[in-house]
Amino acid sequence: MINKIQDELDKTRSEKEELEEEIKLRDRQFEVQLNYEVQRAKERIRKNTQIRRRQRETLADFAEEVQDERSGQAWLMTFADMFTLLLTYFIILYSLSSINMNRFKEAILGQEQASIGLLELMDAAEIKESLDVLTGLKSDNILTEVKNVAKVESLSDVMTISTDQSKIIVKVPSQSLFNEGDAILNLGRGKKVLDELIRLTGKYPEYKININGHTDNSEIPNERFASNWELSSARATSVLRYFIDQNIDPKRMTATGFADTFPIATNKTERGRALNRRVEFVLEKEN
């Protein structure tokens, strides 16, 4: 009886861990979607700011020309002032209609369960957006492009994107690139995601590419590799060689195997082990 109860407790604990991992995965996906929408909003504000700057410069030039004229047409100054006021009014209306964080909140909260943490995330996005507008800061376009590729090219199931300070981390499950226990690239499954990453990294040569192989803690099912260290290193190297074959500068890249030393999920469940078996592409801008 005690053994049966213990088995039930282990089963319940395992199911709980799986649910927690699934919730974390959904949170990460939601954060990616939120960051992508915020980036799009910031880009619209930047374009509107450029338009307003050009219009102000044009109006300033026009006003100087009117002041220099000595033909007695003083009504032009009044007309220019009125035109400036009207233009400012319509620019403000356009800006207010271009981005509405309240409507954005409602749209997101209609899909995800409302919570205090989610509201705090929304408020943080608003504060960050306001600071970026005031200071003129903007993030690298490569982050936006990577997220856009994952969404538009239907690769969100095989690409998980996150950031760590100045680094962009793209996680790709090993099963999308390799057969079980093997280090030879399966291009039938992985060519699309690899080619998209090659296209993006080729477009931004100022970024270093660190290719990291990771495994779960299971034993190697064959004798080709002595341990997970050899397997993870061989997989990272296979990806690096494919990038070199596609004319990516080898001086920009490194390949490292970490075996099971950096898990992102529990190794007690199949789902957790699948998440831990991955190849990470760490993009870091060179100083």
TrEMBL record:
<comment type="similarity">
    <text>Belongs to the MotB family.</text>
</comment>
<keyword id="KW-0175">Coiled coil</keyword>
<feature type="domain" description="OmpA-like">
    <location>
        <begin position="165"/>
        <end position="287"/>
    </location>
</feature>
<dbReference type="GO" id="GO:0005886">
    <property type="term" value="C:plasma membrane"/>
</dbReference>
<protein>
    <submittedName>
        <fullName>Motility protein MotB</fullName>
    </submittedName>
</protein>
<feature type="coiled-coil region">
    <location>
        <begin position="2"/>
        <end position="29"/>
    </location>
</feature>
<dbReference type="InterPro" id="IPR006665">
    <property type="entry name" value="OmpA-like"/>
</dbReference>
<keyword id="KW-1003">Cell membrane</keyword>
<dbReference type="Pfam" id="PF13677">
    <property type="entry name" value="MotB_plug"/>
</dbReference>
<dbReference type="InterPro" id="IPR036737">
    <property type="entry name" value="OmpA-like_sf"/>
</dbReference>
<feature type="transmembrane region" description="Helical">
    <location>
        <begin position="74"/>
        <end position="96"/>
    </location>
</feature>
<keyword id="KW-1133">Transmembrane helix</keyword>
<dbReference type="Pfam" id="PF00691">
    <property type="entry name" value="OmpA"/>
</dbReference>
<keyword id="KW-0812">Transmembrane</keyword>
<dbReference type="InterPro" id="IPR025713">
    <property type="entry name" value="MotB-like_N_dom"/>
</dbReference>
<keyword id="KW-0472">Membrane</keyword>
<dbReference type="InterPro" id="IPR050330">
    <property type="entry name" value="Bact_OuterMem_StrucFunc"/>
</dbReference>
